[in-house]
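Trying the structure run again after the queue cleared.
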Amino acid sequence: MTADAPHPRYDTTTIVLHWLIAVLVAVQWSIGQTIDDMPKGAVKLDYIGLHLTIGVLIGAALLFRLGWRAGPGRRLPPADRGVVHVFAKATHWGLYVLLAATVALGITFALAWGVPIYTIGGIHGFAAGNRPLARALLGWHGTLADTVLILAGLHACAALFHHYVLRDRLLRRMGPALARPDR
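Done. Tokens:
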């Protein structure tokens, strides 16, 4: 690609979904880390309800993104070849699978243990008294959430490496359309 050639970009829907999911995951992980610090009562119940709501939003956005990717979303040529391309693909699909599994475990926990939905009621759990099951589901949910964050961090570091070290304009693929061109 020459300095004057336009760089390939993903379509607006793909870019918005990418950054929406990234922000929701960061907020969701932060909420998950602080739930136990909330005082017992209505505030904590609302906080848990917010966590559940954002989790469902992440799941819906992920499903939409996968559908968009399989359908009308813009496909770009690979930025790299060989082993680097394989790692990039594995990272992307790993993020999708881990996110889906994290959301599924969170929903399974909510259905098994019973989770209040704000102060208007809740989901009656099918295994509300089964503490070992609850601990296991929550433990796996937390481990997967941490793994998503670590993998997303590596993904971000790789994008920054491409941008600042390789200077190959890779980061521009997911950047805002109004970003100034590289010089």
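The longest strand covers residues 115-116. Worth checking whether this holds up in the mutant runs.
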